[in-house]
Amino acid sequence: MAPPEFDLLCDEDWLAATPPPPPPPPPRRRQVLHRDRTNYIHTGKSHLVDQDSLNTQLLDCLKREATYMPECEYVEALRNSPQLARARFRAVNYFVKCRARLNFVVETVFYAVNYFDRFVSKKGSDAVTTVALVELLSIACFSLAAKFNEISGPQLQDFQIAGGHDMENTFQSGEIRRIELRVLETLQWRLRCATAYSYLELLSTLLNMDSLRHQLQIALTARMSELILPTLYDPKFVEFKPCVVAATALRCGLEELLPSKSNSYLSTLINLINHKEEIENCYKVMEERVADPLYTLTTVRSGGYAYFPSSPVTVMASPRQFNCHVDLALSISSDSDLTRSLNPKKRKLEDV
Fold it and tell me: What average pLDDT does the segment 240-259 reach?
């Protein structure tokens, strides 16, 4: 006879019994957003994004930007010291080439430039008096940027190999680590900077351009990237805040791709950034030095920033000469045909 506690089992084999299958889930129905759609905008990564969240991101970038800038005297030092301007150019050129060879994201270059500028602005031009010092500092800044921004990074020696024939010196890993630590201490371990690239997608999204075709939005972002990359080479743009450089690139892109609506979008942009005069000044420089399809680094010399004097008699003299033409295509992602095919003289896509 079964124990009392099993009386209700009616002599079934209860251990072998299996529970009935759960009922099938109800058919999925399309969610309807009942909130006011004016508070949401479309992006390429998600269907709807809360505009309040984007405004918060913008305010966060603007706040961080103010505390991650080089020292005020740095702009004047670049203007008055061809040696320092040359050292900075050499570092930026190294960052750009290594990014392409190591397949890093473009944003890592902007982080590295920020670390280099902030470090040199605090330590002075004595930190880059020789080619060896410039190369060692460049490797350290780029390695730190990769550690902060990339999912995985190479060994320290790989950063030297990626520099190619432009590197005149070789360094031990211990030397690089010591400079990394020195950079971190000088920057007070503050690496999460806001750069012009940080605003790239944020600004174009905040303009609420959900009425534009997806192709045009992609082209606009690609054009902005094309415009802000050369600004890293030109010390003139160090005078402007990163948000101003990004907003100016967006303005140039709008005027090229969407001239009929650029004024209305520009008004919105000015309200977002609130640096109207600075954007106007930066716009003049960008139109002359970057947006012009004939732009090369030699044109920068005509504006008073002679990175490469015809007779470079300085402590950084080298038997090898830099080529003044820099192939910025190395820095632009190759996974978009739009980036390669855009022509500054044939960019009006709104009527296509």
Answer: 92
